Amino acid sequence: MSANNTAGFNTRAVHAGQEFEPRTGAVVPPLHFSTTYAQDGIGGLRSGYEYGRGGNPTRDALQEQLAALEGGTAAFSFGSGLAAEDSLIRAIARPGDHIVLGNDAYGGTYRLINRVLGDWGIGNTPVDMSDLDAVARAVATNKTRIVWVETPSNPMMKITDIAALAEVAHDAGALLVVDNTFASPYLQTPLALGADVVVHSTTKYIGGHSDVVGGAIVVKDADLAEKIGFIQFAVGAVSGPMDAFLTTRGLKTLGVRMDRHSENGQAVAEWLLQRPEVEAVLYPGLPDHPGHDLAAKQMKKFGGMVSVQFKGGEAAARKVAESTSVFTLAESLGGIESLMNYPSEMTHASVKGTELAVPVNLLRLSCGIEDAEDLIADLEQAFAKISNG
Ligand SMILES: *Cc1c(COP(=O)(O)O)cnc(C)c1O
Questions:
Q1: Mean pLDDT of 37-54
Q2: How do the domains of the chain map onto residue ranges?
Q3: d(CA 67, CA 48)
Q4: What per-residue confidence (pLDDT) applies to 1?
Q5: Cβ distance 323 to 382 under 8 Å?
Q6: Is the pLDDT of residue 56 over 50?
Q7: Are 339 and 230 in contact (CB under 8 A)?
Q8: pLDDT digits (tens, 9 = 90+) for 198-225
Q9: 8, 93, 145, 204: which has the fewest Cβ within 10 Å?
Q10: Which of 85, 87, 109 to mutate to test the pocket of ligand 1 (most atoms within 8 A of CB)?
C-alpha cells in the first residue's frame, strides 16, 4: 500500500515512498545504482529521470518518506548533515545576511556558519535560544535571514519553545530552521509548530544503526522547495543510492526504536539523579529540568540523549568515559548501540575556547536499545572507578 499523510506515524514510516516494484512485485523497492537513464528519442524521459545527480529513484523514495514523516511538502537528501546545512544556507542567505543561532549549537554547524560561510559574507550571532527576549534583540540587530535552533540542544539539552520562536523569527522577516536530529520526527514535528525548515543529520536516529552518514532538509513552502532543489542539483552534495537505501531501511523502524531509546534514557537519567558523584543530570524527562513542561508539550517522549555533570570535575568525567564496556566511547549518537561522548574534547572540540564551549565535567550519553539494567550496571561499575581513583 502507499501511505497518505493522514495515516499514523509508523504506517507512514513503513510505507511512504515504498511502492512495490511493478514488474516483479518485489515488496522492497529495488536499489537503483544507474547513473543515467535511456531516453526514448532526444528528451524522451521515462518518469522524468535523466542523470543521477538530478534524480535517482532510491533517493526519491527516501525523500518521499522523510517528507511524509516530518509533515512537509518536499524533502531533500544529502551526503551528510553538514552538506544539507550548507545547501540550505546557500539557498536562503546571501552575503550581508545574518544567522542567529543557539549558543550551544552542534559544533560542526557553528564551524560551518562561522568559519566557512563567514568568509562568504554571512554573519552570525550565537544566543541562548531559551531566552526569547535575547533572541528578539539579536534578530533585530542585523539583517537576520535565518533563526537556527536545536531542541533539545546538544549537549546541554536545553528546550526551546518552537512555536514562540517561529513568531519571533517571522516578526523579523526571518525563517525558522529547526535541527531536529536529537528528537527525530517521531518525537517532534517542528513544521507543525510553525517552523519553516527542518534539517537532519540522518547519520543519527533516522539511519539509526551507525552505518550510514547522511543529511536531509524538509520544507513546507513550494518556493523554498524549488530553491533548495536547485542547489541540491547545482551543487550536487546528494546522497548516493546505497546510503539512501540504508537510511530508508533505518527510518522504517524509527518509531519502535525511539520508544526504547526514550525508556532507556529515562531509566538512566533517574539512576544518575540519585548518585552522589553527580552534580547535575540534563534530561528533559526529569520533572525538575527547566524545559520539562515545554518538552512534554511539544515532544511525544523525551528521547535517548542524557548529559551528566560530575562533582569530581574533568577527572571524574574522563574516568567514567574510559571505564564503560556496554557504552562505547565514540563520537556520534542515535544508533541502536549506546555511546558515551566527552564533548569538550570530542564532538565539541571545534568550539573549545569560544562562547559555545562545553563544560569539562560533562559527559553525553546516547542510550541505545539494549536492556536498561545492563546500561545501568555498566555505569555503576564505571562510577566505582571514580572513588577508587
Ligand atoms: C551530527 C550532527 C550534525 C552534522 O551531521 P553530519 O551528518 O555529521 O554531517 C548536525 N546537527 C546535529 C545536532 C548533529 O548531531
A1: 95
A2: 9-251, 255-388
A3: 20
A4: 43
A5: yes
A6: yes
A7: no
A8: 999 999 999 999 999 999 999 999 999 9
A9: 8
A10: 109
